[in-house]
Write a structure and sequence with these properties.
The chain is mostly helical and 151 residues long. It is built from six helices and no strands. Helix 1 packs antiparallel against helix 3.
Length: 151
């Protein structure tokens, strides 16, 4: 028998690996004057790729958490030149934020469409795990708007 790691440890390990990869990919942008030319599309495409990769590699992490961490990485990359004696570039920070928003936007639009179509869960995931059962998905009638009951 092979020893197995608990599922939470595997999730934590994957999150740490993705964060390290994001830092390695994005760190050259913080010293862009020395390494890269001042092209804004490189910043936006890099952050789009990192954020989309995080969404793909971390399917069990909440979508809001990935977007928040990506924005913190944007902030870190944006203020890192200050430690090297350079000024903050607002245009590069906005390009970085645009890359994150381009990756996160379709995910939130898809969730909005699900809610608009009535595909909502009556129970929260943590309540289901605590109760020990899995509730079937709730399907609304076509054209009906369903609102969860207050608890």
């Amino acid at each position: 028998m092979f020893p197995t790691a608990p599922f939470r440890m595997m999730r934590l390990g994957c999150a740490i690996v993705v964060l390290i990869c994001a830092i390695v990919l994005v760190s050259p942008l913080s010293i862009r004057q020395m390494v890269l030319p001042g092209d804004l599309t490189v910043d936006a495409i890099t952050f789009y790729g990192v954020t989309a990769g995080a969404y793909g590699l971390l399917p069990f992490v909440r979508r809001g958490d990935i977007a928040i961490v990506a924005m913190w990485v944007v902030l870190g990359v944006g203020i890192a030149p200050c430690f090297l004696g350079q000024e903050i570039s607002a245009s590069h920070m906005f390009a970085d934020m645009a890359g994150v928003l381009l990756a996160a936007g379709p995910i939130y639009i898809a969730r909005f469409r699900q809610v608009a179509q009535g595909d909502i869960r009556l129970y929260r995931r943590r309540q289901i795990e605590a109760a020990g059962f899995i509730a079937p998905p709730v399907q609304a009638e076509p054209g009906a708007i369903s609102v969860p009951a207050a608890s």
